From TrEMBL:
Protein family according to the UniProt entry: Belongs to the class-III pyridoxal-phosphate-dependent aminotransferase family.
Cross-referenced Pfam families: Aminotran_3 (PF00202)
Tagged with keyword Transferase: yes
Identification of the protein by name: Aminotransferase class-III
Example of a GO cellular component annotation carried by this entry: cytosol
One annotated GO molecular function: pyridoxal phosphate binding
Keyword list, A-Z: Aminotransferase, Pyridoxal phosphate, Transferase
Keyword Transferase: yes
Source organism of this protein record: Cellulomonas gilvus (strain ATCC 13127 / NRRL B-14078)
Amino acid sequence: MPITDPSAALEGDGATALRLDRAHVFHSWSAQAHLAPLALAGGSGCHVWDHDGRTWLDLSSQLVNVNIGHQHPRVVAAIQEQAAVLATIAPATANLTRGRAAQAVVRHAPPGFSKVFFTNGGADANENAIRMARLHTGRDKVVSHYRSYHGNTGAAVVATGDWRRVPNEYARGHVHVFGPYAYRSEFWSTSPEQESERALQHLAHVIAAEGPDSVAAILLESVPGTAGVLVPPPGYLAGVREIADRYGIVLILDEVMAGFGRTGTWFAFEQHGVVPDLVTFAKGVNSGYVPAGGVLISDAVAATFDDRVFPGGLTYSGHPLAMAAVVATIEAMEDELVVENAAAVGRTVIGPGLADLAARHAAVGEVRGTGVFWAVELVSDPVTRAPLPPATMAAIKAGLLARDVLPFVQDNRVHVVPPCIISPDEAREGLAVLDAVLTAVLEPSG
Ligand code: PLP
């Protein structure tokens, strides 16, 4: 998509934006005294810009959600049109836009899924999926991965493996297991196949020890994202499906980050030949233009609630503006072959480009990913695989920003997660900047 003139979107002034932000905005996930946020004024396609018209190539998709790119005209128009007709309506009513949004999501679901429960985002999608699984099975426990992120509300943050240190009084019936991570294997495995097999044995042993009759759900990200784009090895998700079937456990796949094109297919699980019982989604479903998420429900689980109340829902569940954005986003992605683009750019540019980067920089321990969902794992020693220290990662992040690339940096990794619409040339440009920054920070004299 062409960059519209950044100067056309300028409004207000950057210094005022920063002054008001620091005076009155309490930021999430932050120590408030140590913030220096960018003040962004506008965007288009894969670019964002500040109040002075300086532009950045957005390799972060913000929080890995702007799959269709910034300011897609069709999505913006759909929100405006809906706002002019009916800006809000209670969830209990029937609404044409909401019905069309659910139909659009179901269009990309496997056979056997016809219902969607809409939420305000990813965390409450997981909350509701867990509740559905508990009511469906009459059991309590939920098994998830240590390396995972499922959201920052009551049950979702307890299911999250990455944040077990966050105190939570609701931590009830949650069990964690190690998932496959061949580069840092907990199982001493020497191949992806062995990693998969051993991780499955571990999962089966933990479930046996917990008591299979007490386990309601296995909740996994199809591709753990925030934890490092840990694409599961062949056979892992199929093996999890088998274990879930063996014990009558509901398999919930969290596609909040991986879904809606990011991995080069509509849902990541399609690439693993697996059909879950519940799918949670958010982010890419409408690229975050208006907050939305949901649970895609298999007919078997949905039937539990034919004659029984499902006790869940919020005032804004299925909000018409969010639903208008869902319909327009999915239709635009279909018409413009956005998912196909993500697959092609990943296969022909990002994958080979990052492999080349790994071959030339000793600090690149591993690159992994699919579609427009990649992580570059950086180490200070390729033999011990010790992660690059936080100060060096901060220098890499600053170097990328200084060269007009907006990165997603997490722990010792740079995630390359641009909008799914990225062109081959834009992807090449982003990788060239990453290459130059790694050289400048890690090999300054070379
Ligand atoms: N699940 C996954 C896999 C995520 O990546 C995220 C957010 O990054 C969430 C759930 C939580 O979504 P939200 O922030 O919309 O609540």
